[in-house]
Amino acid sequence: MKRPDWLAILAAAASGLALAGPLAAGGVAPGWARPYLAALVASAVLCAGGANNPARWRLGSLMLALMSAAAAVALVALLGAGLQSNAGWGYAAALAAVWLAAWHTVSWLAALRPPAGWPARLVNLAIPLVFGLTLLFLWECGVRGFGSSMMKVILPAPSAIAARFGSSLPTLGADFVQTFKGVTAGYVMGCGAGILAAILIDRSPFLQRGLLPLGNLVSALPIVGVAPIMVMWFGFDWQSKAAIVVIMTFFPQLVNTVAGLASAGAMERDLMKTYAASYGQTLLNLRLPAALPFIFNGLKINSTLALIGAIVAEFFGTPIVGMGFRINTEVGRMNIDMVWATIVVAALAGSLFYGLLALAERRATFWHASYRQRAG
Amino acid sequence: MSARRGLSGFWTGHLGPILAVCVAIVALWYAGAVWMNADLQRSAFDNAGQKSWTTGELVAGTLAQERPRLPAPHQVAQELWKTVVDTAPSSKRSLVYHAGVTLSATLLGFLFGAGLGVGLAVLIVHVRSLERSLMPWIIASQTIPIIALAPMIVIILNQLDVTGIVPKAAIAAYLSFFPVTVGMVKGLRSPDPLQLDLLRTYSASQAQTFWSLRLPASVPFLFASLKVGVAASLVGTVVAELTQSADGGFGARLLAGSYYGQTIQIWAAIFAAAFCACALIAAVALADRVVARRMGYAR
């Protein structure tokens, strides 16, 4: 450890500035926040001074991580205790100090070599978590500490979004159910039709050569444009959303499944031939299982596409419920916190959908090389 | 001899089958147009006081309505011809004008998004803590419908007095940035350990490794993700134009068409947008081919 630990030095400087400067401009901030800042200074100095002493540096890093978390909690608590939009430059320096300390913590964690197993998994989870929490913290304290009332409308703090989320659960739930009726129905029909069509055209090389380039092309086109047409044909309710999802998911699924059906090796096919297996037997016992990784790839791509299709289709007309409708109307009424709450629902739903697919894939394709390697 | 080979190559290659499928699609489309517009045409005959009609009259009528449920291909083609060729490009009725609005925002956004994506990928590959902290979020964000943010970004930027091309380009940049980052990180990581070890035996610096090994190795990955990114930018711009429709563009055309039930106009806008997407992807593919030939990785 020959190089000086610049992050710790900067964190020490920033927290020192925070101690010296006013936390509130033109007002007296409660004094109880100061000890936390002092502790942050002390641990940053310990860490920066330990550049040539690994044991001391490790202790300092741990202290810095813990103290920055404590200081972050104190800085958030200050916002509830009279500090609103009138934070001073001392507060800004304190935010910078916490940010630098968090950065230091992330690099410290990333350089750790934890033993394989749960410690490694814990560290792998902690690193993005620290990063995300730091962003949320800066957003929260920046908006509430420095933002004008206009700013708070345009970019609501995470706590305001969470409060809105908690108070509008029935609305958000109804929107979710409405949108997911269309998403689920369209997804099942589109992906199912894609897989079936792939199996059908699998026997005809002519159709494969004709449809695959078109399928690849169509997958890249802005298909969401047909949303207004579908709304005209199938009405405002979820059926039109299901229709657009069917169109959006069909071709990616078709292309991926066809590629998957072609992926069984020549050796294995020859083996099936020596068993005198019929086309159906080969399909069921060899080619479909071999195609599963590709099919799941298509399903995963489509999980995002389905949500996009349904939400954009709702911009064109819907009964007065649905996530796309909510986003569009609440944006117009400048209820940006409600928009964020809806986006949180969409993000949760999207990643849950994807996570379930990934889980199903693991169960179904446990034999595949990509999973065997990880286990070994 | 060569003519016969050319003819059989037509059917065993890609061109013939694609053409056959296209012909089938157009035929299905005409059948669908007749079927979907028949009810409308019957009531039109009723309204006109015409008591009886032949099937020929009915079919001809379904293919020539002003606001059909499904316009026939030739109606869309006529509309495209009218709005692209016959109308002056400066007119707001011209699709060339709207294509210009959409494409300028798309390209500006794409350039920014691709640049940002490449820059972030370079940082992620070189800064270990960034890779472990940021990359999981970038991958997770692929699973959520980020396009839902588009109306909000437009409105917020409008509130901050940022109007015109910038909000649309911001969304286009935002949508193209993710695939480029992911693809570029993969590309910069693609040199195998043997090659990296070789450079280490030369005691090459990190910068030298980057310029002479990592960057050249990443180019095929870069172009693959640029194709995805440019298509995503166009989708982002079109969706942004739904919210910011005053400036025109394909999204505004779609929205206006859906308000006034102008189905032919909607279909023309969809096809024009699809052509633009094809042109953009083809341009990236062409650049890919040229670069591939000069760098010598072309197959």
TrEMBL record, chain A:
Keywords: Cell membrane, Membrane, Signal, Transmembrane, Transmembrane helix, Transport
Domain ABC transmembrane type-1, first and last residues per copy: 192-364
InterPro entries cross-referenced by the UniProt entry: MetI-like, MetI-like_sf
Record's keyword annotation contains Protein biosynthesis: no
GO CC, any one term: plasma membrane
GO BP, sorted A to Z: transmembrane transport
Any single Pfam family the record assigns to this protein: BPD_transp_1
Chief place of localization: membrane
Name the UniProt record assigns to this protein: ABC transmembrane type-1 domain-containing protein
From TrEMBL, chain B:
Membrane-spanning parts: 12-32, 95-125, 137-157, 169-188, 264-287
A single cellular component GO annotation: plasma membrane
Domain ABC transmembrane type-1: 99-288
Signal peptide: none
Source organism superkingdom: Bacteria
Membrane topology: Multi-pass membrane protein
Cell compartment(s), UniProt: Cell membrane
Family listed: Belongs to the binding-protein-dependent transport system permease family.
Annotated protein name in UniProt: ABC transporter permease
